Fold each of these.
Amino acid sequence: MSWEMFATLLAIGFAGSVLAGMVGVGGAIVKYPLLLYLPPLLGVGAFSAHQVAGMSSVQVLCASLAAAWAYRKSGYLHRRLIADMGLAMLAGSFVGAYMAHFYSERVVNVVYAALATAATLIMFRPSASDEWHGDVDEIDYPRPLAAALGALVGLFSGVVGSAGAFLLMPILLGVLRIPTRVAIASSIAITFVASLGGFVGKWVAHEVMWGPALVLAWASAVGAPLGAKLGRRMDARWLRWLLAALITATCARIWMTVFGW
């Protein structure tokens, strides 16, 4: 690995993880397109969609663990929700990650674009209140629906090497009606649980490039807690719109790739 590639991966990992920690995602929504397009744009190398998905699985695991640890004393972690959706996504992401080995690069990109499109549409649904001042465990939601949606998100997001937090957050906000700050913190913890399945699936399929993946993981371990701290100080409405902007921009860019624009 050249020092130019090392510096590029370090910058992508750190910047993407700061944003991810702020809005409650694992980071693939930011880093997947950056890893796919930035290295060749800078002339330092290139990765295939399968390689990017494999590296993303390691990065998401480390970033979500670091951010969840930063939120451990925040009072916003909904433990029942984390268990219901996390375990369902864990099973689905393992299956999806292994299935991706049999798909072409175009199919991987189409799946990613389809998930981002669905997330974009859900983000524009009315959501619950931004803040929550009581006991988070008192927040009610339909548990069977949450588990079913978690399994579905895990299955498809496992294909692209992420834990699905970029789709999970819109579901928590627009479908399950979880308050924004509780959704952000809980989403990160759910993402960590679910990312275990995606990582193991990519590892078994031999799609993890360990050198670049470990650079991203190290940068994520530093950037994600910083993003989580910044997110706790920002207005929750701004965090929600920032997430919507990230998802929409990524959705548009991936569809451009799919159609060869």
Note: DSSP finds ten helices and no strands in the chain.
Amino acid sequence: MKLGWWTAVLLMLSAGCGSINEASGSLGTKPTPSPGAKPAVKKELPWLTVPGGQMKTTLFYGPWQCRQEFMNQCQVQCASEGYPLMGCVWLADLKFDWKGRLVLLPVDVEAGSRYGIWHCCCNYPKLPTDKKEVERKRWDRFRESFREDWSKKFGEWPSDGAKSWPGHHVRDLQHGGDPVDPNNIFPAKPSVHDLYNRAYPACYGGQPPWNTVGPDLPYTDN
């Protein structure tokens, strides 16, 4: 069973160093970009003090076609829930750099990990408009406390001036996403959030490119 990204990263931090490579699979913490890869839109957050050292979070934004590994997991997920798979959107990668000292040995160490966030567009039924609005109001009430908690664990929630970036729900509210589950929310650059909002209807509609597999790593870190 795939851990939610928030849960997985907190487990990583409690261990004192990075070892989760959900996004890079067998490629390790420094995966090789696929041919034709282009620099990703990214956001680097400041270093944050964590147990045993310091951590820096960098967000790389798609949307990209899902790699084969993610598409396979979506096929399993959708089948287990009883809905056909229509497509898959690879939304972002979260990269974590960690530096500190080992507990057992007085040695300075550095480590890192990546965690991929993608969405399986199973053929979920849409919520009626009134129920969707109820869920949106739950998110409105939860938003500020969530951002504060997120900032304490990963670095200050990004903003453009005085305007905070929107929180993107991985499984959207229209298709039954939980509005207050931390594993279902991450900060998205406003222009990227617009791209997500355009990609989701096409993904749920089984339209290209979201219904086909993409490269293992479609972006560079530059």
Note: Confidence is low (pLDDT under 50) at residues 15-29.
Amino acid sequence: MILLLAGTSDARELAVMIQQAGYNVTATVVTDHAAEQLRSAGIRAYVGRLDASQLADLAKAEGAKAIVDASHPFAEEASKNAMQAAADAGLPYIRYERQASSFSSEKVTFVDSYEEAADLAAEKGGVVMLTTGSKTLDIFAARLIGRPDVKVIARMLPRKDNLDKCERLGFSQEQIVMMQGPFTQELDRALYRHFGVTVVVTKESGKVGFVDEKIAAAEELGIEVIVIRRPRLSYGIVHHDFAGVLESLKQHAPLPTA
């Protein structure tokens, strides 16, 4: 059995491919919606944020032969927990991470933290669209809301807890866009025009995260983009495609021969 941390939209596809290769797969996710998607594909799923000890216990209880970490590129704590759990359980750790996009534009500025992104957005002013999710929304709210020269628009998944957080942090209805992706370049362009966006804040989530479309739409309209770089971790075994993950599993957790 393979224990998979499924934290991205492409993790479901990876889980299915691993199962089709002959392995049993148990996935951990943080939302009921993600669990439903996996279960509909025949993948067992546990819902909840597990620390290293809990992951190690689950791996042992399930008889896991390896831990595959397909958490989001920005889920730094989840990856650290997965690496520690693998070490504690004496299991191979294999990281799947989306290939990063490469940008070359005078309109794109890279930063190393959410705080730096928020400070730069405050410095630029204008209409700032946040496409960084709800987890770090408080960082941007503290630095941007209430400034007379800044209007903030927060775009995120349509979930009640996200709406509650927005309201708690002082976002008005007019500042909240709740939509489920994927987002095309055309849709991004329409949203930028509708709100009169002058600055977009996003994360280096990779091609599957539709960052390319966000930036292409912004470039079309002459909009500045602030991109938050990924955390840099020493993963050990890391692959940017599914084939590499499967090859590593065959090497480090081979299926029993008949």
Note: The first strand starts at residue 2 and ends at 6.
Amino acid sequence: MSKVGKWSLGLCALIAAFLMSNLIGNAQTEKPSAIVKVGDFAASTDFLNLSQYFQLTRDVTVKVAYIPTKKVGAPVKRALTLPAGTDVAGSLTTTKRHGYLVPSLQLYLARLSYPLIQQSAPKGYTIDPGAGAYDPQVTLKATAELTAFKRVKVPDFMPGYSHGDLYIGGAKAALSPMEPSSKSLRITPDGYAEVLTYDPTVSTGLGFYQKPTGMAKITKTDYHDPYRRLYFSHDIKGVKTKRVSHTGAYQYRLTLKNLHNPQHTLGDEDNGIAGTFNSLYSVGGTPYFTFIGYDGISG
């Protein structure tokens, strides 16, 4: 290999190390492969929802796939601009190139607020959420793009081990084999609370990705376990908030209480199907549940 070639590979390694340091700078509270208690079970954090969070230090434009909402058709790609200051959920991974590990960043953009992700959607199309909650909408590898993301801690308004989707119903609903199909509350990484009413007329998997029936920007969070108190400048249709002021940005409050009574659904080990964990919450006095992870590897 020429000196130039060796120098180029060395530079790539330095850039990769710098990016990893910058992106990993503010680590999660749970260490990889830690064992934690989930109710009466010991669970590995490898199988729980430990999303990483990143804040954009400048505007970044990415290509995102949108799919037809009510008809069968091919996805279309559109440019979506993520503004500076936006927090996004993601997963930092590495790929091997020329013998060196190069960082790449998977972004879960379908979890962002409806106004942001739909700004580039063609009429009659919805962002493609993928087949599951772990499917990223974008994977970034270019150095210039990666340097725009700064690792930040999990926002206080995000329920523990949750992707932010809470579904109405108590323990019975959490343990039911039926998919949720009524109402949900979505807490987004970019700081919105959205009430979503399931739309049975759209394509499979898109029922909770349509326009919210109620929505507000989170202006402040008070977190003292088991309570998360979210504040808004206006009321949210579809959930019970409490008016605590008549002026300013903190007029309404929504209380999320973690009941610390996780529900475990058995899997089928012989067929490679993992069991699941759900957390129970009281949201404004109404029972909800949220998926928090698996008890092992699914096939």
Note: Residues 1-21, 24-30 have pLDDT under 50 and may be disordered.
